[in-house]
Design brief:
Layout (H helix, E strand, L loop, with lengths): L2 E2 H13 L10 H13 L5 E2 L5 H7 L3 H20 L19
Antiparallel strand pairs: 1-2
Protein name: Competence protein ComFB
Organism: Metabacillus malikii
Length: 101
């Protein structure tokens, strides 16, 4: 099985920092939009075993690299928060289908 380790790493970061990101909506759809947008802007790092994700995560112990990931996550969270596409959003215009991808 081939796994993008960045998916797990970014999910952990989102879980840890979502209360500090001032999200306008924290529904499942908005959180998934944040993850998709963030992963599209992050270089994938593949492993063949879930246990090997820790080796990739160890590369991000360096504060500069972790800061870069957090900046990307925060930028994507702002994009989604500014224009949420979920059903909960008051800003959603009926009949106007939008997408971040």
């Amino acid at each position: 099985m081939v796994i993008n380790a960045m998916e797990k790493i970014m999910q952990d970061l989102l879980d840890e920092y979502k209360s500090r990101l001032q999200l306008s909506c924290t529904c499942e759809q908005c959180l998934e939009d944040i993850m998709a947008l963030t992963l599209n802007k992050t270089k994938p790092r593949y492993v063949t075993n879930v246990d090997k994700i820790m080796y990739i995560k160890a590369d991000y112990v360096d504060k500069q690299q972790m800061t870069s990931l957090l900046v990307t996550l925060a930028e994507c969270a702002k994009i989604v928060s500014d224009r949420p596409l979920c059903e909960n959003s008051v800003k959603k215009v009926k009949g106007n289908e939008m997408s971040y991808m």
